[in-house]
Amino acid sequence: MSASLPLQLIADPARSGSARQLAALGARLRRQVGQAIADYAMIQAGDKVMVCLSGGKDSYTLLDMLLQLQKKAPVHFELVAVNLDQKQPGFPAQVLPDYLAARGVPYQIIEQDTYSVVSRVVPQGKTLCSLCSRLRRGALYAHATRHGFTKIALGHHRDDLVATFFMNLFHHARLAAMAPKLRSDDGRHVVIRPLATVREADIARYAAARGFPIIPCTLCGSQENLQRRQVGQMLAQWDRDSPGRVDQIARALADVRPAQLADPRLFDFAALGAPAAPVPANSRPGHDPAAD
After folding, report:
1. Does the structure show a pLDDT above 50 at 13?
2. I want to staple 45 with a disulfide (CB 3.0 to 4.6 A). Which of 75, 143, 198, 256 is the partner?
3. What single-letter DSSP state applies at residue 277?
4. Where are the beta strands (DSSP E) in the chain?
């Protein structure tokens, strides 16, 4: 699944770099996304994919990549951009509809005032992310059910997967990350993350070059000292001090060896070194039962 569409470069060369470099970046992102879709069987013929569009760089890039790949895909599938308007104060409600209409992309807008709920329930000074995420997920799942979507595409990238791994490690004492493809807890929805192997830095460069109309998150994006932000700073420092380390960690998430960890639910440690059961005489190789 590959396509070659010209990048709509912005005028400032200091931000966009050379056209050749950006074309190469776009080709690399399409290749990575296409490979992830193939490796994890994310999209099949006849799928109706709900592309969750928040207005951030990740979801814009996700939609852009899927639209490009759709043109050359060997199977037919449908894409619909869906935005959840959470009624945050000052949210520019027309930005996404105007952008999507200009590109000719089918879209749906969900209006649900989760902002008031989160603001009322969460004590002042506490982070809002957890409750906001649950409410957002519930609204998107309900919409997917009502409109017959077979897949829900989210814009999480490689750095999100690695950061989630360390969040679980540091704060929950478990080895877990974000799966590139998963079934929801109620078994009714399949969630896919086509950007699972794409670096956040590459997404930022691509989004800037394309001039996507980014909408900042004023609800949780402005909060400081979040645990995820601290992990992100750690990963950024590693990238500066030891280039390639985060890439290695991301690759390790796809090469898990239960026998070299310590979870007895995943590996039968009790069977190691246990006395071998005696083999009955009548089951030994070469034994003739008629001679008994």
Report:
1. no
2. 75
3. P
4. 48-52, 78-85, 107-111, 151-153, 181-183, 190-192
User: pLDDT band for position 1 (50/70/90)?
Assistant: very low
Task: Select from 25, 29, 23 the least CA-distant residue to 62.
Answer: 29
The sign of the torsion formed by the CA atoms of 91, 97, 103, 107 equals positive
Distance of CA 39 to the CA centre of its chain: 14
Q: How far is CA 53 from CA 26, 67, 89, 141, in A?
A: 19, 13, 18, 14
Query: For every residue of 1-63, which 3-state class applies, written as one string?
Result: CCCCCCCCCCCCHHHHCCHHHHHHHHHHHHHHHHHHHHHCCCCCCCCEEEEECCCCHHHHHHH
The closest of 94, 74, 77 to 85, measured between CA atoms, is 94
Side-chain half-sphere exposure of 142, counting CA atoms within 13 A? 10
The shares of helix, strand and coil residues in the chain, as percent rounded to the nearest 5, are 45, 10, 45
181-183 sheet: strands from edge to edge: 107-111, 78-85, 48-52, 151-153, 190-192, 181-183
The residue written with tokens 């996304």 in the block is 33
pLDDT at residue 291 greater than cutoff 60: no
Q: Please report, as a single letter, which amino acid is at residue 106.
A: P
Cβ neighbours around 129 below 10 Å, total: 17
Query: From residue 201, how far is each of 29, 61, 208, 241, 267 by CA, in Å?
Result: 12, 12, 11, 16, 37
Structure tokens at 41: 């069987």
Q: How far is CA 286 from CA 181, 280, 281, 289, 291, in A?
A: 50, 13, 10, 10, 11
Cβ(63)–Cβ(51) below 8 Å: yes
Q: What is the pTM of this model?
A: 0.83
Cα 24 from Cα 31, distance rounded (Å): 10
